């Protein structure tokens, strides 16, 4: 899938009036003095006016125009004085114009055609992409100033309509913004209003043959995301729009339901899953002694992972239509669509039915209540038909390392659109909770009389806890892995004496084991006759800072995990324990925590810590309680034991 | 600096050079003939850590006549063994191509194969043209990208291609070292006597082969027939029938090779990997045509000086500041002190042109244009600065330099292409010198941006013989100072007042953060670094007075235990001085380049609760680096009812050699150990 479509912004209107008046230098435009103080507060920039228009010319063509004037208040808002207008094989930029006004509102510079640059927008990972951008830079040496940009994009790809969210960044205020959609009555607009202020609603009217939908927003003060809070898109007004009928390069589809969108995608790729006979025969031989469905899937997935790799080519309709399975079998590479389609074809040859599924990977989940193209990735879904109880195997076909059935933080815990002959169907990808996302650590620490120590740690990580370690293991050589681990250790002074990462292929859920040997010159702090030791070697959870001012948003604790630590401290001869930390047990709705320390019969000190955090949400009023919970954990994590030299 | 010189001569005769590739040495690789040994696992045991290995990288550059003009023809054959799935990216290759006006680089004769050993049989998959893509990055640059088919763990991939280039000034450079190990890397260059190239070798690996042989090359001059005009070459003129003639020229054949080159990896505190990786670069110094005098192109620093002063987008612009003469006159009237006058001109330029982030030493077009646009590259900004300083009666001249990320300049090789930046040099009447740059909003006049701290720059003077090297030593350090007053209570809770100052480059860094984040976020970030802190009142001072440090006063409090304790353990210095050794890795191959020195001072006083006394105090310590390279001083003093802790650290040198790395790491280790020691406070019994 292609990611580019998310850039599309639009609107339009003519510029002549603005420029003519500006040239006269009489009538000021957007003088900073008229800006309400409430909008300047905590803002780097203020959108003075934004007019965005989407004109639907036909099912296959749209024209988007944007006219936006932004006052830049300081350097941190200066990116608002630059403009990138995205285009590709299916769209073109009609014009890009710009003017700069000083604080008093007098025009000081016009953007000239020669000042507009044109760049290929290589995403850094694609072998080929048609994404391009027109770029203008109107940044000024002193603040404040106002920049206005106007541009128009004509698109022959109506699969994506605009999602209008004028307050698109933190610390950006909006004085006035409007959004209009003009569309023939035969192509009615679908839209979803989100977080609109009281009193703001769609104004519906008729203009000639066109239906007009219009929204207007005024005086939106700057917003900021809060720690453990929702993303900006959950706090600010927006209107999402989508077509009822669309057409891309002769492929027409309707979009009134998930079923419609799924059907269009399914049919676009129909007939592209044919394999050469030799490959079909190879698959048949591969699974001929495997009657079990899951074994067949595993063998096919192993074949896929060992014989293909991910190479992205996104050109025109190729952003949505897969290259045929035959090509993948010839070259051994493809993008997410192509590899999923190829794997589907291999499974078919093995007698297993599977379906491609669209997801939005690595970003917040789709809005299931507004059918529209919100996807950027494809995975493969294999329902088990012969299993005793209903079960599904999910396959990430672009990775050569991901374990069978694992979706991880990239595609797990979200919705997907299953593409079936009967159309699209919204389903859930696997969910990973605190029980799956585990980290278990066992450490033996050998302390000497000066406070130095050596330690041997064995850590087992599963589920989402292992994701980045799996990437380290499969992506970097051992020396580089060790460097990365060293950089991430929360210790001030140490050397690594031993290090190894291995994956446990037999585990039911992806598992990475880590062996770590450490030399710790200052594990214990000597002071006179005493040595102070914090037994919690590596698992300290930082406290959460109390909010500056009142908490505005709810608490989203999105990542579920559980940690279990056992640390055994081997005390040197000639020392005895003067004090050990008191046990702590915290049971709250946010999670549970406990620590306990005891002396084992052989004199070894054993510290046991457990932390369990589910995926939850709380109203903002609970924030002080959450801060207190984290403060108590932090205090307990830093508790120290005191050893004292016995008289000799 | 175009090829006008060459074209004038070449119009006289059409050369077809086929005799320039005479090498005595056998090629280290034959395209299309994989070595069976490369498919045996035992030959890669030593590379178990690597994702892929470059088996052979073989490049050749030579001169040929094509389309009535000289071209540099560059052939490359590259063979790579893929050892891990993470090495698949090595099967996708990119060839950047440049064009300017009518001159261009062209990729031709691209071929590629993937070899796999399948059940003891060697299979061969061809690179298809459908897997080759071209991407136009900008007007002058494009990239040819292609990927090889059927790549697996164990595959050997092989590509060969030729680049024909019109750019004789930029002879193809060669990089021996990459981020994966290289078994054999070889580059050959056959250069006829007409061309004189400067060659610049760098890196930390030694050459295995370095040969230079001379022979004679056979040149065939083809006359297409028709009217060829005056020709000093053939001695003839007027109408001619199609014919050819062979002449002999001396050719120097160079051969450089490295064997078993280790993988190159970035380390922290480096300028740019380009400064450390093993490579050889070329620059055309002169041309020598038959029966003509040697024409130097960039042979001396004096020549560079002169050509820059004559250049329309450099020297010529220094005389074009007149459009601001009223503003300059006002500054001159207001400031008779020359130092103040420099500062005023600096201020004017900084507020007139915003640096667009591009580092260049040629102006975009005219200074007037940049001024009208209010935006420009480093040359637009600093050439205007020099022009206006001169108009204001000061002796100001340009200093060419290469920024840290652009790589080092070799003073023995006068290569203009190694520079990418220009600043102003001012000589005050008392012979005091200043380096001035107006691209940074938050640096005071007279301080270079850290990106310019790259050793030495070249002063460009009105008289070429006066040009010289200028030290780019920083006149600022990273300075941090803190004064902390703490009150301890019986529960172990602390309340504190902190006064901190950020000076020198640290001031710029913190002002930038403050500007980006705003005061509220800045303080939230500050609190985030400390567990269990609640912040009270805060105030920033001297935000806009760039000559002074940025200062901040704030209050904070921590909560204590529920019950009063008879013994309290403290190590408060940890909260204020850094707590992680920046030198995590045990060894280092390259110098540690900070750019500027640093100094950190914390003075902390803890007032004890009534009835409590200190029981244990850390001992005083002094740690020094060899050669006066740095010093850490730590002391704890028992005052009446209070404890004073003083920690001072300074690193005097901007650059430490790789040999000094171990002592630098140890220095931090000892300092952090000292900061970790606790103060024990006890209730009087």
UniProtKB/TrEMBL annotation, chain B:
The keyword Signal is annotated on this UniProt entry: yes
Domain DUF3857: 71-215
Transglutaminase-like domain segment(s): 330-431
This protein's UniProt keywords: Signal
Domain of life where this protein originates: Bacteria
Pfam families registered for this protein in UniProt: DUF3857, Transglut_core
Residues spanning the signal sequence: 1-26
Name under which the protein is recorded: DUF3857 domain-containing protein
Species this chain originates from: Hymenobacter cavernae
